[in-house]
Amino acid sequence: MSFSEDVAALENPLREGMPDERTVRPCTVVIFGASGDLTRRKLLPAIYNLALSRLLPGGFAAVGVARRPKPEFGREMREAVAKFSRRRPLDEATWCELEKGLAYVQGDFNDPATYERLAAELGRLEVERGMRQNRVFYLAVAPTEVPAIVRGLCDAKLIEPPSEAPDACYQRVVVEKPFGEDLASAHALNRQLLACLDERQIYRIDHYLGKETVQNLLVFRFGNTIFEPLWSRQHVSHVQITVAEELGVEGRGKFYDQTGITRDIVQNHALQLLTMVTMEPPSSWDADAVRDEKVKVLRALRPIRGREVLEKTVRAQYVAGAVRGDRVPGYREEPDVDPDSKTETYVAMSLRIDSFRWGGVPFYLRSGKRLAKRCAEVALHFKPLPHRLFRDAPAGLDGGPPPSIRRGEDEPNVLVVRIQPDEGIALRFATKVPGGGMAMRNVAMDFRYGTAFGSSTPEAYERLLLDAMRGDATLFTRADEVEAQWGFIDPILTGWREEDAPVATYEAGSWGPAEADRLLVPGDKWRKP
Ligand SMILES: NC(=O)C1=CN([C@@H]2O[C@H](COP(=O)(O)OP(=O)(O)OC[C@H]3O[C@@H](n4cnc5c(N)ncnc54)[C@H](OP(=O)(O)O)[C@@H]3O)[C@@H](O)[C@H]2O)C=CC1
Ligand SMILES: O=C1O[C@H](COP(=O)(O)O)[C@@H](O)[C@H](O)[C@H]1O
Fold this sequence. Notes:
The protein is of the alpha/beta class. The protein has helices at residues 3-11, 37-52, 73-84, 92-99, 112-128, 146-155, 183-196, 212-222, 253-278, 287-300, 308-312, 449-453, 460-470, 479-498, and strands at 27-32, 60-66, 102-106, 135-139, 171-175, 202-204, 236-244, 313-319, 321-323, 326-328, 346-351, 363-368, 375-382, 406-407, 414-420, 424-432, 440-448, 503-507.
């Protein structure tokens, strides 16, 4: 912990109790796909930040595995950390210590010799650094590579079945998203994994679950008494879930054109947000208790299939436009994208959850690349007043409210959970305009994470790596959960194909296609965060 953080911890009462006390046993993290983008942008910076926060165990090593030779792996990773770490400049002492336990094994995932070399390297590090065979294998690779790696690890006896003995070593496998590309492939992948591993050893990652604000959805709902009674069809008129990006496909045109935003974001991140907002309270903070409740919501999602896709979903692609003033090309002009591509870069849908709590409440979900603003949020729109006692203040009232305070007319209460950026929670409510009369205007009560807890909150990958080392799978998806997600998404993708659903267009830098408005119940409007 740096001096300034130390002081902040002492001075800010909200930070009390923040350091995490759960211990991590000495272990090695092995990253498959170590020459790839995720490793340098996210994984190594996350490991470095854990080291900087003194959350790594005394004995720790990180081994990268990939096809390309990397004679300067340590130097490359140092540069990556210096560039992508949330805390800069690089702390030399922390990096030097970490680098002592850093190694690289070159090899093809399909070649048994790769695992022999890895076994030798692990043996050397474990002896040298006084560690036992506690290992987290992080598969930062495409889903097609996963079965070969797991087989290779098991054949080489680098993974053993889990033992209940208190001092037994563990071996766990973290599997990156996308987990399959449809229900059939996800199911097959689960079968292949479970042929070699126990479910307790499998950690299917969805990095949105590692975001502080996503976890806070559960604390907000189940750690307070006053919100949960409002959290249902009795009070909520509709819910909007938005995952918007300013970014385009960022050099991942080939991957993206085969994937599309529904598989890349909605099947995982957006549906996870939906489950966190709508699940029933779990009986305890236990991995299976939490995941059982999430699966129930996924199974209660009303399917959208066949011609229903035309009425309940909108897919679209961006055309050239300007994002924050910079001209950007259209999707079909991006490198490695088919000029006749029908892959969606935007999707909006109107969902229903068939349950006692949510029956009749529309859930509007949208996600897009190259939208006006980077923003992920969940907004609960409450029901309108049954009877209006007070009048809205007329605009331009002398000495009246500034324009940032919104007119109250027809604007019921809204609770917005901002996942990113500007993480926080805002509640919109009506208030009396000062002066004579009883005119009202809407104002916001606004909690900001940055102000309350300091600006540098841990990255999702830090939390999730640490949880995998600790053996806490609560924030990872279970086999039945990931299959239930695909079970909802698959019929939509099939419906689009079979019904030849139109692909609308939207200008890059806008809030998406006008066609998305037809998903809304009359009177509802998409938010412009
Ligand atoms: N990048 C991101 O922001 C995110 C990525 N993900 C997921 O993480 C995973 C990895 O993504 P990303 O890092 O971008 O992918 P990259 O394409 O950048 O990296 C893939 C890695 O896999 C290695 N590899 C592939 N096949 C083999 C093989 N047969 N033998 C040995 N090595 C092999 C490559 O090695 P080499 O290049 O040396 O051949 C490279 O290190 C994907 O599933 C992706 O969907 C998830 C969220 C965000
Ligand atoms: O998984 C993915 O997520 C990122 C967005 O993540 P965020 O944490 O920056 O919100 C997205 O850009 C990428 O396409 C997708 O694969």
